[in-house]
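Researcher: Structure prediction, please.
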Amino acid sequence: MMNHSFKKVSGLKFILFLGLLHFSFIFLTFIFLRYIIVSLAFLFVYGMLLFYWGFWLTKKKKRPVVFALYCGVFSQLPAIFLSLIILTGASNLSTILETYDFLLQVWHTPLAPLFPFLPSLKWQETPVYYWVTIVFSFIYPLILVLGAVSGLFSKDKRC
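Model: Predicted structure follows.
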């Protein structure tokens, strides 16, 4: 018989799991980036896994939606932190700012297959793909929350 404490999902374990999931998709996308269709499939699978794990938290583990939000935000904290630094212009040294840009783009490697499909427009003299990477820092946690909300309102008792 399993101890009840092992059945619970602790926040830290789940955040670490989401971080590991993200790093594995960074690695997979990097390896298969040459094959754009495979890379796009990895991005789709990653989004679906985030949605599923949010659903699983509220449906199976009976966690509140706020728990999914906290886990999503903390798992994406490096990207959120980098995005906020870039958006606020907290660093006035261009070399350091370029380092933040590089780190943010590495973090969002799973988005790389989308970049060829984005328009070549610029907003505030910055390419659209750059703004997409900044925005996705905040979208990843919302995908987890959408799954949690759907798990909350799901009628089916099986998961």
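Model: Strands lie at 122-123, 126-127.
Researcher: Thanks, that helps.
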